[in-house]
């Protein structure tokens, strides 16, 4: 792993130094960047660890590590054996400004359309919008909540409308066809809460049997089935 | 914006409280989560603000807000007027463990295949792998570095091989066809450094004239053209 092992204190000092050194050259962009990163960092901690939105294990699916109380999942089916055409999972989440800044940092997609209000105001959209790929990530999040261990084989995406920052969107994945080799074709859409489709497309996934649950999970399962 | 306005100190206190309250119930998952988030947070600061990898404006393209010294971009063309079939942009970046955890948090895709070593060791991959959607984000990052203001219209993706965490991958977008309405069809691939294709597909983009640069950018342009 190439991660820098410097302490948080060192990072703050390095940040302050970098901030001062660069302030004359690119002060405006760095100022925006600084406040963006600070806000993203603050929200990362508060979103993740605040008692009202603590991550927790989802009870029904051992393939999911954790969820948050502000995320919504609706599943029509619980086991791979029962999965058939028409079954679906809906996953709903807000796409926040800090999500957009974090995505720019992890993907390298620093398109100013997503990060710079002044630049974005002069584009055809007239405002900053969410990265299409970030919004499409909710499709993968919904797929992951199908029963079994999901392997993503392909995805076609039509980006039909821009997604405003701060919008709650929901991804729906619906089994359209069962294919050979434990594969399934699914219709995949992302919609805003008023039902407007922002992304349309389809996915092919392979569904493996999930690894055997651990002992305590086994005990849980024996009481519910 | 739905962001929590609590101070960093409050977040740390809230985190400590949540940590203690939940430790008996789901201690193992929370412990992994806690260390993951702490590591991701540390790296977010150090990656973004360390002097060796300070973000900076890319000189050649006003549609990009900033870049980092560890990111590599190679462009065959500088202006929309010159853009033709065969032109390409290559964008290269490491996909780190903290990138994977950050993507899980912002997309909601907490598939244990990406987050849980023990779970992943029993899957067909035998190890944790990078989210396909995160790796595909580098295609969007490369597209954003084409000249002009890029609007993402569609993307087809075949996830051909898993991407190991900590791998440096490069996305290549190459103009395959010019279409009417300022649209272009591009071949899009993501490869590891040894040339193995991990994602293959194609994109359709619309390229608008970028907003007029600001006054200081105008001055820069006049000295270089």
Notes on the structure:
Chains A, B: Its EC number is 4.2.1.119. Chain A is an alpha+beta fold and 225 residues long. Chain A has two domains: 9-50; 69-212, Thiol Ester Dehydrase, Chain A (Roll). Chain A has helices spanning 8-49, 97-107, 112-115, 117-121, 132-143, 215-224, and strands spanning 72-75, 88-95, 149-159, 167-179, 183-192, 197-208. A six-stranded antiparallel β-sheet of chain A has the order 1-2-4-5-6-3. In chain A, α1 (8-49) crosses α2 (97-107). The radius of gyration of chain A is 21 Å and the shape is elongated. The model of chain A is unreliable at 1-10, 12-31, 45-52 and 216-225 (pLDDT under 50). At the A-B interface, α1, β2, α2, α3 and α5 of A face α1, β2, α2, α3 and α4 of B. β3 of chain A pairs antiparallel with β3 (149-159) of chain B, so a sheet runs across the interface.
């Amino acid at each position: 792993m190439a991660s820098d092992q410097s302490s948080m204190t060192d990072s703050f000092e390095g940040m302050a130094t970098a901030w001062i050194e660069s302030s004359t050259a690119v002060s405006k962009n760095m100022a925006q960047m600084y406040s963006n990163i600070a806000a993203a960092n603050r929200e990362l901690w508060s979103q993740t660890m605040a008692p009202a939105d603590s991550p927790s294990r989802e009870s029904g699916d051992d393939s999911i590590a954790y969820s948050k109380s502000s995320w919504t999942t609706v599943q029509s089916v619980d086991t791979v054996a029962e999965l058939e055409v028409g079954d679906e999972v809906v996953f709903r989440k807000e796409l926040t400004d800090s999500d957009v800044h974090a995505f720019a940092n992890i993907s390298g997609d620093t398109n100013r359309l997503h990060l710079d209000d002044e630049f974005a105001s002069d584009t055809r959209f007239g405002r900053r919008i969410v990265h299409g790929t970030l919004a499409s990530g909710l499709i993968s999040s919904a797929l992951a909540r199908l029963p079994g261990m999901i392997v993503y084989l392909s995805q076609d995406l039509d980006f039909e409308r821009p997604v405003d920052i701060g919008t709650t969107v929901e991804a729906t994945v619906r089994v359209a066809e069962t294919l050979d080799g434990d594969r399934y074709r699914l219709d995949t859409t992302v919609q805003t809460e008023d039902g407007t489709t922002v992304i349309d497309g389809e996915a092919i996934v392979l569904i493996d049997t999930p690894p055997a649950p651990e002992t305590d999970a086994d005990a849980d399962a024996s009481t519910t089935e």
